[in-house]
C-alpha cells in the first residue's frame, strides 16, 4: 500500500516535466498554426468557435479556466479580441500570459498590417486603429507569423527549438508551393464584393479587386440605402459576393437579385483541432469561390 | 538643453511604449513619430450616457417590510427617488466615467466615477495585482463585492432599466459596494473554480449598517467590520453553452440602526449575516448576428440579524432607557429570475420576475409586523444598432403585498424608455 502511494506520488510529481506546452489560441486558424509549428510538443486549445464573430465574444468562465493553465496565449491582436481577451486574461490568475510577457503572443505584432491609418473615430464604424486585424486568411502572412511563433516556442521550450523552426519553415515552403497555383487560378477573377473587411489580406495577396463592402461601415449592418448605392455604382460590372458563416445572407441575396452576381458563404476559420491541410483546403475554397 | 538631455525622455518613452497591452503592429511602430506623446500613457477612458423616461400609473411605495422604519435611516423612503432608481418624466441617470490601466508591471487600477445631480460620486476605485503566482489575485480599494452575480455589475450592464428588487432592497441602491480588500483564487482545474474572501469596512445600509457613536446607546466599532466569502464554479460545456453557479455570504457583528418614534429613540445593534446563491446559463447560438442567443439568470439572497433592541426617551439633556433590552431577530429574503432572448440580430427581449419578502420577519418597535411577499413582473425589449449603443423599452407590473402596516400598497404599472450609450474605450464583454 505504502509503496503504491509512493509510486503514485512519483508519477504525479513527474507529470509536469513530461507535460506538453499548453497553448491556448483565440482563433481556430491560429490554433491550427500553433499545432502545425508545435507538433507533438504542444497541446492546443482554442477559445473561439469557428463560426462566431471574433469581435463579439464574451469572456466566459471556461476561457479563464483554459487560460489559468496556459503556458502561451496565441492571439490575433490589433484589438480584434479587445472586448474579451484582456478581461479573460485579467481574471484568469495567470501572471505568465499577460501582455508583454513571453507567454503572450499576438500575430498582428509579427506581420505588416494594412489599413493602419484609420482615424480613431467610431462615427466611421468599429474601426481598428492599429490596422486591419484579419490577417489570418493570408497564407503568406500566416507563414511569417508561424516563424515568429516558432521563435517564441523555442524561447519557452529551448530543447525543441530546432523542431519548431523546421516545422515553421516546412509550413512556409508549403504555402510558397501553393501560392503559385492559387495565383494562377485567380488570375482572371472578376473581383469580389465582401461583407466585412475580413478577406482584404487574401484579396490583396491574390491581386483580386475588392469592389466594395456590404457593410456601409465596419461593424454596421447593411442598410437599404447603402445597398442601393452599391447597385447603382456597380451596375454593368461582374464580381462575386463573399461573406462568412456568421454574416447574414440577405444583403448578398439582394445583390444577386439586382446584379445577377453569384454569392458564396464561406468559413473564415478552420474547425478547432485542424491541421495545416485543413487550412489550405479552406484557402482553396476561397480561391474556388473567387475564380468562379 | 543639450542633445543627450533631450533624447533621454524620448528613449524612455519609446522603451516603455512597447510592452503595454496595446498590440502594436510593426507598421504602426515604424510610423509612430519620435515625440513625447502624453496621450500614449493615458489610461483607457470610457463614458456611459444613460437617459430615461418614466411614466407610472401611480406613485409606488417600497415593498412591504422594506420601507421607512424597517430600513436604515438613510434607506429608501417609499418612492424610488435617488441613486439608480427611476423617476417619472425625463431624467439622466448617473453619467459614469470609467478609467483603467496599468500602474506598473505588478498592478492594474480602475476608477469609476458617477456624475449626477448631487455632484461626482466615486463608485469604484481599486488596484488589482497582476503578477501574483498560483492563481491568486488581490483587489484593494473601493469596489463592488463579488458576492452573487448581479452585485458587481454597473447599471449599464443590467439587462433591464432598473436592478432586481433583491439587490436594491437587501443591499441598497448601490449594491454591496464597500472599501476593503479581496483575495481571490482561480483553481488550476479544467472546470472553472474561483474562491474568494473579502474584508470590508462594513458600511452597507442593508447588511452592515454603521452609524458610529450616537447618543443614546450606540457605540462605534472600528472597521473592518464585514467579512464576505464567495465560490464560483463553471463546468466546461463547449462553445454553445455556458453555466455558472455561485454561492456567497457575509457576516458582521457591528450592525447598528436607530429610529425615532413618537419622540422616543429606538436603537438596535448586534450581528448581521447574509447568504445567497446565483446561477447564470447562456446559450450562444451559432449563425448570423447573435440571433437565438439566450440567457437565464437567477439569484436568491437572505439576510438576517440578531439585534439588541433598546428604547430611550429624552429627558432634558440626556436620555432615559425605557424598559429592558430585548433581542429581535429580523429576517428577510428576495429572489429574481430573468431570461433574455435575442429575437433577431441586435434585438433582444427579456422577462423578469422579482419576489421579495418570502421570508419577511420585521418589527415595528418590538412588535412583529405583518408583511408578506411582494412581486414585480417586468418585460423589456431592446435594440442595439452597434455594441456601443442600446435603446430599451420596459413595462413592469408591481404587485406588492397589501397587508402592510405602513399603509396600503397598490398595484401599479411602470413604463420606461432608455438609451444607454458608451463613448471611448472599448468596454469589456464580461460574462
TrEMBL record, chain A:
The keyword Signal applies. GO terms for biological process: metal ion transport. Gene3D superfamilies: Nitrogenase molybdenum iron protein domain. One of its GO terms (molecular function) is metal ion binding. The keyword Signal applies. Transmembrane segments: none annotated. Residues 1-19 form the signal peptide. Keywords: Signal. PANTHER family: ADHESION PROTEIN (PTHR42953:SF2), HIGH-AFFINITY ZINC UPTAKE SYSTEM PROTEIN ZNUA-RELATED (PTHR42953). This is Zinc/manganese transport system substrate-binding protein. It comes from Halospina denitrificans. The lineage of its organism: Bacteria, Pseudomonadati, Pseudomonadota, Gammaproteobacteria, Halospina.
Automatic annotation (TrEMBL), chain B:
Gene3D superfamilies: Porin (2.40.160.10). Residues 71-84 have a biased composition (Basic and acidic residues). Residues 63-84 are annotated as: Disordered. InterPro entries: Porin_dom_sf. Keywords: Signal. The keyword Signal applies. Residues 1-22 form the signal peptide. This is Zinc-regulated TonB-dependent outer membrane receptor.
Amino acid at each position: 500500500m505504502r509503496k503504491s502511494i509512493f509510486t503514485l506520488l512519483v508519477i504525479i510529481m513527474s507529470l509536469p516535466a513530461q507535460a506538453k506546452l499548453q497553448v491556448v489560441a483565440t482563433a481556430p486558424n491560429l490554433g491550427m498554426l500553433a499545432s502545425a509549428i508545435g507538433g507533438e510538443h504542444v497541446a492546443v486549445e482554442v477559445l473561439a468557435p469557428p463560426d462566431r464573430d471574433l469581435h463579439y465574444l464574451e469572456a466566459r468562465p471556461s476561457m479563464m479556466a483554459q487560460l489559468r493553465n496556459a503556458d502561451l496565449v496565441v492571439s490575433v491582436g490589433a484589438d480584434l479580441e479587445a472586448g474579451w481577451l484582456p478581461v479573460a486574461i485579467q481574471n484568469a490568475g495567470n501572471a505568465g500570459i499577460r501582455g508583454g510577457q513571453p507567454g503572450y503572443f499576438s500575430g498582428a505584432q509579427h506581420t505588416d498590417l494594412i489599413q493602419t491609418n484609420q482615424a480613431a473615430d467610431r462615427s466611421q464604424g468599429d474601426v481598428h486603429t492599429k490596422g486591419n486585424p484579419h490577417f489570418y486568411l493570408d497564407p503568406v502572412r500566416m507563414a511569417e507569423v508561424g516563424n515568429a511563433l516558432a521563435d517564441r516556442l523555442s524561447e519557452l521550450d529551448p530543447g525543441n527549438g530546432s523542431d519548431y523552426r523546421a516545422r515553421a519553415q516546412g509550413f512556409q515552403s508549403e504555402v510558397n508551393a501553393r501560392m503559385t497555383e492559387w495565383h494562377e487560378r485567380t488570375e482572371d477573377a472578376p473581383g469580389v464584393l465582401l461583407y466585412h473587411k475580413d478577406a482584404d489580406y487574401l484579396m490583396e495577396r491574390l491581386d483580386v479587386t475588392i469592389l466594395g463592402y456590404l457593410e456601409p461601415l465596419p461593424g454596421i449592418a447593411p442598410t437599404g440605402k447603402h445597398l442601393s448605392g452599391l447597385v447603382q455604382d456597380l451596375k454593368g460590372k461582374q464580381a462575386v459576393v463573399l461573406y462568412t458563416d456568421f454574416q447574414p445572407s440577405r444583403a448578398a441575396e439582394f445583390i444577386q437579385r439586382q446584379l445577377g452576381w453569384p454569392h458564396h458563404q464561406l468559413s473564415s476559420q478552420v474547425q478547432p483541432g485542424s491541421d495545416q491541410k485543413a487550412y489550405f483546403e479552406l484557402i482553396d475554397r476561397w480561391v474556388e469561390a473567387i475564380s468562379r | 538643453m543639450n542633445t543627450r538631455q533631450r533624447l533621454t525622455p524620448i528613449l524612455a518613452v519609446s522603451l516603455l511604449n512597447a510592452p503595454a497591452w496595446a498590440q502594436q503592429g510593426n507598421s504602426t511602430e515604424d510610423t509612430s513619430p519620435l515625440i513625447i506623446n502624453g496621450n500614449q500613457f493615458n489610461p483607457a477612458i470610457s463614458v456611459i450616457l444613460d437617459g430615461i423616461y418614466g411614466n407610472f400609473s401611480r406613485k409606488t411605495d417600497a415593498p412591504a417590510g422594506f420601507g421607512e422604519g424597517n430600513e436604515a435611516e438613510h434607506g429608501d423612503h417609499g418612492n424610488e427617488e435617488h441613486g439608480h432608481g427611476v423617476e417619472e418624466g425625463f431624467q439622466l441617470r448617473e453619467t459614469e466615467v470609467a478609467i483603467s490601466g496599468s500602474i506598473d508591471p505588478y498592478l492594474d487600477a480602475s476608477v469609476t466615477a458617477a456624475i449626477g445631480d448631487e455632484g461626482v460620486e466615486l463608485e469604484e476605485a481599486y488596484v488589482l495585482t497582476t503578477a501574483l503566482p498560483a492563481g491568486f489575485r488581490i483587489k484593494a480599494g473601493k469596489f463592488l463585492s463579488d458576492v452573487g452575480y448581479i452585485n458587481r455589475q454597473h447599471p449599464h450592464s443590467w439587462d433591464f432599466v432598473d436592478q432586481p428588487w433583491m439587490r436594491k432592497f437587501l443591499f441598497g441602491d448601490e449594491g454591496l459596494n464597500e472599501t476593503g480588500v479581496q483575495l481571490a483564487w482561480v483553481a488550476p482545474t479544467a472546470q472553472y473554480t474561483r474562491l474568494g474572501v473579502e474584508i470590508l469596512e462594513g458600511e452597507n445600509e442593508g447588511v452592515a449598517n454603521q452609524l458610529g457613536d450616537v447618543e443614546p446607546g450606540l457605540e462605534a466599532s472600528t472597521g473592518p467590520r464585514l467579512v464576505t466569502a464567495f465560490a464560483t464554479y463553471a463546468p466546461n460545456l463547449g462553445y454553445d453553452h455556458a453555466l455558472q453557479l455561485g454561492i456567497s455570504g457575509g457576516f458582521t457583528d457591528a450592525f447598528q440602526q436607530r429610529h425615532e418614534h413618537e419622540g422616543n429613540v429606538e436603537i438596535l445593534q448586534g450581528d448581521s449575516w447574509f447568504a445567497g446563491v446565483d446561477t447564470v446559463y447562456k446559450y450562444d447560438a451559432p449563425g448570423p448576428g447573435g440571433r437565438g442567443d439566450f440567457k437565464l439568470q437567477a439569484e436568491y439572497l437572505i439576510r438576517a440579524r440578531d439585534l439588541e433592541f433598546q428604547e430611550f426617551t429624552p429627558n432634558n439633556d440626556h436620555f432615559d432607557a425605557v424598559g429592558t433590552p430585548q433581542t429581535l431577530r429580523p429576517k428577510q429574503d428576495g429572489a429574481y429570475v430573468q431570461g433574455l432572448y435575442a429575437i433577431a440580430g441586435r434585438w433582444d427581449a427579456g422577462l423578469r420576475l422579482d419576489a421579495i419578502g418570502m421570508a419577511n420577519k420585521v418589527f415595528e418597535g418590538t412588535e412583529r409586523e405583518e408583511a408578506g411577499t411582494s412581486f414585480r413582473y417586468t418585460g423589456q425589449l431592446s435594440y442595439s444598432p452597434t455594441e456601443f449603443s442600446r435603446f430599451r423599452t420596459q413595462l413592469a407590473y408591481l404587485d406588492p403585498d397589501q397587508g402592510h402596516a405602513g399603509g396600503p400598497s397598490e398595484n401599479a404599472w411602470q413604463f420606461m424608455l432608455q438609451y444607454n450609450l458608451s463613448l471611448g474605450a472599448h468596454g469589456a464583454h464580461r460574462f
